[in-house]
Design a protein that fits this description.
Elements lengths: L1 E7 L6 H13 L4 E6 L14 H12 L5 E3 L12 H8 L8 E7 H4 L8 H7 L2 E5 L11 H13 L4 E3 L4 E3 L6 E5 L7 H9 L10 H10 L4
Parallel strand pairs: 1-2, 1-4, 2-3, 4-5, 5-8
Antiparallel strand pairs: 6-7, 7-8
Helix pairs in contact: 2-8, 3-5
């Protein structure tokens, strides 16, 4: 079984998250993709972050009816910051023996990967799938592959070698880092929160059941 682990704050979940997960699931291919909301994101303040129960419910509503998608609340039951290395090592003991796990993250998160807890250890235990999407530092530039390569060599390891034919960085002792282009939708959780705070509609930026839930709960107002 091939399983993708897609962690994040999901504050709130929106169409970029869902579309990117779908394309990765089809492209690798993956049997399952698990959305894993963080209880306390290590690299973000909790200001403006909806409580974990609300974020969990929004994910469940967003992926309802989508085959191969599920939500995993393991980080919500663990105290302290939600570190990927702890989650991955725990989940490797819970999935069926022989399962292949992949850590999915956006390129913006990957460009901070060297600040993650035990990032070198993480690259020893699980392959990483970097999903390309627009950010202030990485977008539609012709040099985007070079940006990633420079980051990997400067911050991760000079022993990683990029293969354009395989679209991944390989290392003699660590797991590969795949680079996967997904549909470039310029949608962000911060933009959605800003719209909602100003009393404007976020329709067509996130699933309607999620927007309805946000309004019923008075979130981000």
């Amino acid at each position: 079984m091939r399983i993708g682990l897609f962690g994040g704050t999901f504050n709130p979940i929106h169409y970029v998250h869902i579309r990117a997960a779908l394309e990765v699931r089809e492209g690798f291919p993956l049997d399952e993709c698990h959305f894993i909301p963080a209880a306390i994101p290590p690299h973000k303040t909790m200001d403006g972050v909806a409580n974990s129960g609300d974020r969990l419910e929004m994910i469940q509503r967003a992926i309802s009816g989508h085959s191969g998608f599920s939500v995993c609340d393991v980080e919500l039951h663990r105290s302290g910051p939600s570190y990927s290395i702890d989650t991955v090592e725990y989940l490797k003991t819970t999935f069926p023996r022989g399962s292949d796990l992949f850590l999915m993250l956006g390129v913006d998160a990957f460009l901070e990967f060297d600040t993650w807890k035990s990032y070198a250890r993480l690259l020893q235990v699980i392959p990483v799938i970097v999903m390309a999407r627009p950010t202030p530092t990485y977008g539609q530039s012709i040099n985007r592959w070079q940006t990633l390569e420079d980051f990997v060599h400067l911050k991760i390891s000079t022993e990683y070698t990029y293969s354009r034919s395989k679209a991944c960085f390989t290392h003699p002792d660590r797991q590969p880092v795949y680079v996967y282009d997904v549909t470039l939708l310029d949608i962000s959780s911060s933009k959605i929160r800003q719209l909602l705070r100003s009393g404007r509609s976020a329709r067509f930026l996130l699933p309607e059941p999620v927007e309805s839930y946000i309004r019923s709960r008075g979130l981000y107002s």
